């Protein structure tokens, strides 16, 4: 796959394209891109996936809180794994936002060689987003672009959309989000110094910081996770929250207790795969109750991770 930028030009009549944010790169997106590749192959053209650098909501409604499922680098990597010929990163800005669907299709045709545009079954584009699919087809005809509707994903976990996945993650339903995406929700950061309370309880934790501020975080609580750090994949449990039992203030922290691991990993990059929700965060009566709860959490996390890894290998 070749990645191109918005200033690049492609030969006239050379591509069949689809366009979208593709946040989360879920199973619905995989269905869309498979259809795109089939159409491009049948027409002897290259398949082109066009994705935005910024989400339209971040440009059009910057004051509204909004979190992405994944950073750009991960999105591009997951799109590459789906195997299109070309991937175009397009900056969604106020100028792009002003284009109606006809003007946008004309841009795709003239600059990127698009002769067919595959639209998701519920996708809308152009500032006249209220247009019907028939309107888009008529717009395409005026510019020599055949607008096609991709089939809807109808798998076991349908319907699937980025909005649905965001809602699941925000609610802590990481297992359901995993089913929609076909892989676990992940979070990347660096191991930084934290409060250092866990070691005294027998549960030393790595504090995960330097997380992209534009990303969505799961609901506060404890989770069974797989951690990728220092070239290793480790089992553990993570807590997202404000540590109410330890009275550490209102600062949100993300901490992970790595099972059977005591190496110094401060400053290392870390990626967490959220495998299962364990429990909500709540204030306990004291350190003894907290230690008992952490012991139970660890037991449950080990069981859930074993079930996940066994199922994945079968």
How does this structure look, described?
This protein folds into two domains: 148 residues, HUPs (Rossmann fold); 130 residues, Elongation Factor Tu (Ef-tu), domain 3 (Beta Barrel), CATH 2.40.30.30. It has nine helices and twelve strands. It is elongated. The strands form two sheets. It has a six-stranded parallel β-sheet with strand order 1-4-3-2-5-6, with helices on both faces. It has a six-stranded antiparallel barrel with strand order 7-8-11-10-9-12. The chain has 314 residues and is of the alpha/beta class. The longest helix is centred in the last third of the chain and has 27 residues.
Please tell me how large the radius of gyration is. Answer: 22 Å
Please indicate the percent range of residues in DSSP E strands (runs of 2 or more): 25-35%
* Helix content bin: 25-40%
Question: What is the makeup of the main sheet?
Answer: 6 strands, parallel
Annotation, overall tally of beta strands:
12
Give the CA-CA distance, first to last residue: 30 Å
CATH class of the largest domain: Alpha Beta
């Amino acid at each position: 796959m070749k990645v191109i930028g918005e200033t690049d030009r492609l030969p006239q009549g050379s591509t069949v394209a689809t366009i979208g944010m593709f946040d989360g790169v879920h199973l619905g997106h995989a269905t869309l891109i498979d259809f795109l590749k089939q159409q491009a192959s049948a027409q002897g053209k290259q398949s082109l996936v066009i994705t935005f650098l910024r989400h339209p909501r971040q440009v059009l409604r910057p004051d509204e809180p909004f979190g992405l499922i994944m950073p750009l680098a991960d999105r591009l990597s997951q799109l590459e794994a789906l195997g299109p010929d070309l991937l175009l990163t397009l900056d969604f800005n106020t100028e792009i936002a002003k284009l109606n669907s006809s003007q946008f299709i004309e841009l795709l045709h003239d600059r990127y060689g698009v002769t067919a545009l595959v639209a998701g079954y519920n996708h809308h584009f152009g500032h006249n987003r209220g247009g019907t699919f028939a309107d888009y087809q008529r717009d395409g005809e005026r510019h020599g672009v055949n607008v096609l509707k991709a089939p809807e994903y109808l798998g076991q976990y349908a319907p699937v959309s980025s909005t649905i996945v965001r809602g699941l993650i925000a609610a802590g339903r990481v297992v359901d989000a995993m089913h929609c995406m076909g892989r676990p929700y992940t979070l990347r950061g660096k191991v930084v110094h934290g409060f250092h309370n866990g070691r005294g309880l027998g549960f030393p934790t790595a504090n995960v910081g330097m997380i992209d501020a534009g990303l969505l975080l799961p609901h506060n609580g404890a989770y069974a996770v797989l951690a990728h750090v220092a070239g290793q994949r480790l089992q553990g449990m993570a807590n997202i929250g404000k540590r109410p039992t330890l009275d550490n203030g209102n600062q949100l922290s993300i901490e992970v207790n790595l099972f059977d691991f005591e190496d110094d990993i401060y400053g290392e990059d870390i990626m967490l795969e959220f495998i299962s929700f364990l429990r909500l965060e709540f204030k306990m009566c004291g350190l003894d109750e907290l230690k008992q709860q952490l012991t139970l959490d660890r037991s449950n996390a080990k069981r859930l991770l074993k079930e996940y890894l066994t199922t994945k290998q079968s």
